[in-house]
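Colleagues,

For the teaching module next term, I've prepared a clean inverse folding example: a structure given as C-alpha cells, and then the sequence designed for it. I'd like students to try predicting residues themselves before seeing the answer, so please don't circulate the second half yet.
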C-alpha cells in the first residue's frame, strides 16, 4: 500500500515533510525509513517489514502527514528555536531544547523561559563553564533555581536560569533526547530540538495547535501543572 500527500507539493516541501517523518513515528512503528523517498512532487510511503515482529507495518493514514500550512508553522518554530541556539555557549549534541516554549513559538507568543537540557552530566562538572565564557557565575545574570519543577526529578542535577535570555539550563543524567521526552507529563511538551533537527510528530503538533491537554506520562502528573495549563487556555 502507498500513501500520498493529499495534494501535489513542491519537491522542497516533500523534503521538509521527509525530515519530520524520519524523526518520530517511523522508528516507533518499526518502519524501514530507507523505503521512503520523496518522488516527483509527492511523498510516497510504502508498507515494509517490521524486523522486530516480522509483521507487515504501515504508518497509519495521516499519522504524520503535514499539509503545506502546517509545514510552514513547523519551519517557523524551527527558525525561532535556532535563534535560541545562537545564544547558547558551545551549543552541541549534548543540548536538547524541549518543553512549553514550542507552544509559545507556535502561537506567536514570547516564551516565559526556554528549557535547555544538558545530557549525560556526572555531577562533578563546573556547570557554569557550559553557560559562561568566564566559567564564573554572575548573580546579576544567572540564578540557581531552588523552586524549579525539575528539581524533584532524581535525573536532574542542577537548574540555572539566565535571566537576560530566559534560557533555563537543566543539567541531567539523561543519556538521550528520548530519555528526556519520555518523562514529560503532557504531549504538547514533547516537541524538541536536538542536533539541528526539530522532532515533532502528528500528535504533538495537534496538541500544540489545538491546546489540548493530553497525558504523555501519567506517573509525572501534578495538579498544579494541570491548573496552570487550563488557565493558559488548554482544554482536556
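(Answer key — instructors only)
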Amino acid at each position: 500500500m502507498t500513501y500520498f500527500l493529499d495534494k501535489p507539493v513542491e519537491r522542497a516541501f516533500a523534503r521538509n515533510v521527509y525530515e519530520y517523518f524520519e524523526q518520530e513515528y517511523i522508528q516507533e512503528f518499526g518502519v524501514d525509513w530507507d523505503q521512503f523517498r520523496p518522488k516527483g512532487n509527492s511523498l510516497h510511503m510504502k508498507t515494509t517489514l517490521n524486523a522486530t515482529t516480522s509483521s507487515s507495518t504501515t504508518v497509519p493514514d495521516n499519522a504524520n502527514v503535514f499539509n503545506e500550512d502546517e509545514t510552514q508553522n513547523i519551519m517557523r518554530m524551527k527558525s525561532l528555536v535556532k535563534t535560541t541556539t545562537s545564544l547558547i555557549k558551545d551549543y552541541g549534541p549534548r543540548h536538547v531544547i524541549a518543553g512549553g516554549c514550542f507552544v509559545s513559538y507556535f502561537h506567536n507568543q514570547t516564551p516565559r523561559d526556554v528549557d535547555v537540557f544538558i545530557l549525560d552530566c556526572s555531577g562533578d562538572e563546573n556547570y557554569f563553564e557550559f553557560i559562561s565564557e568566564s566559567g564564573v557565575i554572575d548573580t546579576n545574570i544567572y540564578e540557581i533555581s531552588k523552586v524549579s519543577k525539575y528539581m524533584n526529578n532524581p535525573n536532574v542535577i542542577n537548574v540555572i536560569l539566565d535571566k537576560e535570555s530566559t534560557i533555563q539550563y537543566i543539567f541531567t543524567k539523561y543519556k538521550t533526547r528520548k530519555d528526556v521526552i519520555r518523562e514529560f507529563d503532557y504531549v504538547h511538551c514533547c516537541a524538541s530540538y536536538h542536533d539541528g533537527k526539530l522532532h515533532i510528530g502528528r500528535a504533538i503538533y495537534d496538541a500544540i495547535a489545538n491546546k489540548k491537554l493530553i497525558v504523555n506520562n501519567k506517573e509525572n502528573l501534578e495538579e498544579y501543572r494541570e491548573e496552570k495549563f487550563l488557565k493558559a487556555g488548554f482544554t482536556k
